[in-house]
Amino acid sequence: MTVETTNEAGTLEAIAEAMAPKEPDILPIDHAEELMAVKMFYETRTIGLRAALRREQQKNAELLESNKQLQERVEAAEKNLDEVREDVAKLTPSKPGKAN
Questions:
Q1: pTM of this prediction exceeds 0.85
Q2: CA 64, 73, 58: angle at the middle one, nearest 5?
Q3: Among candidates 79, 76, 95, which has minimal Cα distance to 87?
């Protein structure tokens, strides 16, 4: 058996009072329901953010593929331009008035 002094008993009562619910109508189940609602909100928000991230990643992949195709077209056009320049150089007379 523990013997408490008056001061210790007052301190224990203050602690017990501080730990007691401020509103007696609020039960622990109310807190649990609120926590579940918050959890569901954040889970839904997380799912939404993940879906948005997937959409952005898909868009980025499509843009990367499009960029690759455009780069290939530019390289082919540059190659064709070089060939045209060579053909023009062959057809252009080296001296004015003379053909090659």
A1: no
A2: 15
A3: 79
The amino acid present at 52, given as its one-letter code, is A
- Average pLDDT of span 66-84: 96
- What span, in angstroms and rounded, lies between the C-alpha atoms of 89 and 99? 11
b/e burial code for range 53-80 (CB count within 10 A of at least 16 → b): eeeeeeeeeeeeeeeeeeeeeeeeeeee
Spatial contact of 92 and 100, defined as CB atoms under 8 Å apart: yes
Coil, helix or strand at residue 11? helix
- Tokens linked to 44: 């839904």
Contact criterion met (CB below 8 Å) for 100 and 90: yes
pLDDT tens digits, one per residue of 9-62: 667 777 777 766 666 677 778 888 899 999 999 999 999 999 999 999 999 999
Owner of token pair 């013997």: 3
